[in-house]
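for the record, two folds in this file. i put them one after another cuz i was lazy. first one right below, seq on top, structure tokens after. the second one comes after a little note so u can tell where it starts
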Amino acid sequence: MRAWFDGTGLVLFGVAAVARIAYLLIFQPTLESYYLGLADSLLTTGVLGFGGRPSASFEPAYPLFLAAARLVFGERTLLIQLLQASVAAAGAVLVYDLALQLSASRRTATAAAALFALHPLLIRQASAASDLPLTTLLLAGFALAFVRIRDARSAAGAGLLIGMAVLARSMVLPVVVLAAAILLVRRRRLHAAALTLVALAAIAPMMARTYALSGSLAPTRSGVNLYVGNSPHSAALLPTYDLDLLEPEAYERFVRAHPGVAEHGPAFDAAFDDFLTAVSVEHMAGHPARTIGQKLMNAAYLVSPRLVPLRISGRDTRVHIDDNGAARVVDSVARSPVEVWSHAIAASLLLAGTVAGVTLRRAQLGRDAVLWAIAVTFVGVNAIYVPATRYTAPMLFVMMFYTAAAFDELRRRSEARHLAA
């Protein structure tokens, strides 16, 4: 990466790392989660799962990252979080190089990287128990590798990066198809083949394992995510409450329909996934107009200045569903005003900047096709499944690029008018 060699990268990385580490030390987010449980299982039993039982519900990349960090740092989770935050901070350098490649403007590139370094959502997520920081880094690296494709070897490198991103979060898979389609439209068939084959080779072991365990090619938590976003109660919770609160209700519904299915293990996970997928599709098909309207609203929620969900779940937060099917959330927790307003300001800036940037850059949008592939994938998949602000993190660098491009162009025009005067 050229930015590392002219000192710019070190400055950008330093700013991003300081912001993320400061947040970690001040607010001390926990790393305890099922991801850490998966990592510990990998280290103690060699099995991606829980208690020695394999699971087909999770992608392997983030648990493997945590397992490697455990080997180095042991039980010192703060050091693991410092490592994770530092790795996430490297995304600022990738965004700088990507913006420079697309715009040929150091001012645009610096502004885009600065937005990445200081965005409140990315800062909060960097040390959280989440695969999203790793997914964000891999997607930014893929986008940079894609715009630098010159031969089959560089196309294969881009394919490896997007394959690794799928191993971190399987919802990224449509980007592989869209990226290959972009290359085909550009009549670069060899590059499309190299990218696709290498990406599939990277993904294949996960798919083979998941299929052997469950009979499914994808991780078996798709069904529950589809259900909580498309149940009879989803609209009552959106956009104020966390849809994950509906998971216990989904579980109870499955148990009532399948009382003889043994709990735990891949067979249970697969049956649970298939059942909830079928229920969700039936619900959506039975209410087509309502479903389409909700999906459009979901897409709006993803870029809204309002945090979704606005209230979070605490230890005692529950959903109560009465005999008439009405859902009511009790004991939810308000977010801090700092979090609410920092997101509102950042999201408003990016939304206005993206609209301006796309408008000003409309003659060059073909060069940015890979950015659109990423944005369309995240907006589309999250609108269908679960619309939540946190899930937009891996595509925010797309909006940051257009915001920076708008800022640069408007400043250039202002300077030109000043010189003309």
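(here's the note) second protein begins now
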Amino acid sequence: MNEPEAEIVRRVFREYAEGRSYKAIAEALTESGSRYTPDKPEWNKNIIARMLQNQVYLGSEQFPPLLAEDEYRSAQEAKKPYSLRQASELKTICGMLVCGVCGAPVRRRNKSDGTERWYCENDYHHIPATLTDAEVVEKLRGVLAHMTDTPDAITVEAHSTEYNDIAIARLENEINAMLDRASDNTEELLGMILRLAADKYAAVSGVDAESKRIRQTLKCGQQDIRILPEIADSVIISSKTIISVSLKNGQNISEVGSDI
């Protein structure tokens, strides 16, 4: 095995030990142009898994070692399952966590020293290695406290709402086309404008109803993190460990004083 190939082996073990997933390592190697074999340009997670199980990299009678024992051991220890000591609050929301840099899922595992490691599934550099369970819980409670203390902030104003409904967009286009043609059929145009206004009002009313439901849930929830699945679609962790919540009404809310 030549030196470039040896460096790939060391890279795979190093990155997995630091928290990167099989899939993320494989995709990064493929994108870099590295080849698993001359006739196989693409890597996959199964290849990475087999490499991490291969003790021949520690050396044998036929081959010199490519890895130090501590490098190999660190990768094996990274395979430990998620901690059973994880707070029940966090277990409730583990499927909601996403990276604020790339949008990939954020995962959690135990490091070799027993402490937790939060990481982006796509790139482990996106989430600080120092992030702890306690910090995640504290920040989420801070977001919930902010929303509970300022319930009026949970609302979507009509002028800031994006109308994605296809029928509304089509009607707007028809009205604009008639205006461009300076149509004489003012009665039809007026009817279309009134219908558009009614459709938009209905859309805004739906969002407003959702905002009211969120405020009521917060009022009853006593800042319990376990209510988050009821009011939010995701929990976003930024590279600066600022945490925000993407509510079901389309808003993103972070701790008071935080700037996403």
